[in-house]
């Protein structure tokens, strides 16, 4: 972690004390400033005073559940990235959370390393000024110039190609479904076909010289994943 990461605030919301303790210890050791909340009402109040960059939010809580907390946070204008943390793996629940403004969805049980990767992805995606120009593997993302460099050269990309590649690189190592890509790049109101994702992935592979699909991998039935190793 660099010095900039020590300024990053994470709010943990879960009604299970052992999970709060586990995550708090791990994130503090990684250099994050951490606040915790054992329920939804406390979480809403804490978000106003603590102003977190990231909210790790459990869905299944008594009283005010995570969906309602997420809705209130977004309604109140919170700029925090919300990662829903839950034991529920139903597609409908994921869609509901994302439509309420959640930025990611992690299903229990999960690895701490995966959660860290998702936190970093959300930070680079929503708070790029915390990092300035971002270098990830062979890529360089410059949000001020709206440029993406690859192996030292600036890529010639359409606006949609830029947003798609940026999203996938910032989430490298994570499998991204077509539905999720459409939601995050094209938006929830996109009325076209999922196949548009395949068209743009093919174009990006051409521009990256990724003929063997080693950089942007296809996982049949699951989606796509950017591999940088």
Q: Mind telling me the CATH class of the largest domain?
A: Alpha Beta
**What percent of the residues sit in helical stretches (DSSP H or I)?**
40-55%
> How many extended strands?
11
Separation of the first and last Cα atoms: 20 Å
**Count of helix runs:** 8
Could you describe the 3D structure shown?
The chain has two domains: 126 residues, Response regulator (Rossmann fold), CATH 3.40.50.2300; 94 residues, Arc Repressor Mutant, subunit A (Orthogonal Bundle). Helix 2 runs parallel beside helix 3, helix 6 packs across helix 7 and helix 6 crosses helix 8. Helix content is 41%, strand content 20%. It has 229 residues and is an alpha/beta fold. The chain has a five-stranded parallel sheet, with helices on both faces. Strands 6-7-8-9 form a four-stranded antiparallel sheet, covered by helices on one side. It has a two-stranded antiparallel ribbon with strand order 10-11.
């Amino acid at each position: 972690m660099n010095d900039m990461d020590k300024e990053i605030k994470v709010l943990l919301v879960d009604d299970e004390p052992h999970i709060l303790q586990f995550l708090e210890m791990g994130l503090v050791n990684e250099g994050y400033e951490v606040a915790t909340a054992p329920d939804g009402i406390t979480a809403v109040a804490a978000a106003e005073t603590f102003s977190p960059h990231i909210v790790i939010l459990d869905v299944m809580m008594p009283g005010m559940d995570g969906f309602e907390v997420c809705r209130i946070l977004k309604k109140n204008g919170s700029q925090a990235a919300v990662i829903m943390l839950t034991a529920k793996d139903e597609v409908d629940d994921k869609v509901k959370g994302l439509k309420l403004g959640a930025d990611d969805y992690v299903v229990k049980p999960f690895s701490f390393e995966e959660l860290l990767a998702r936190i970093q992805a959300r930070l680079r995606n929503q708070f790029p000024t915390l990092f300035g120009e971002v270098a990830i593997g062979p890529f360089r993302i410059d949000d001020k110039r709206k440029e993406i460099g690859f192996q030292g050269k600036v890529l010639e990309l359409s606006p949609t190609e830029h947003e798609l590649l940026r999203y996938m690189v910032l989430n490298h190592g994570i499998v991204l479904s077509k539905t999720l890509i459409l939601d995050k790049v094209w938006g929830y109101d996109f009325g076209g076909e999922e196949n548009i994702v395949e068209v743009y992935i093919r174009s990006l592979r051409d521009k990256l010289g990724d003929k063997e699909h080693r950089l942007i991998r296809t996982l049949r039935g699951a989606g796509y994943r950017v591999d940088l190793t």
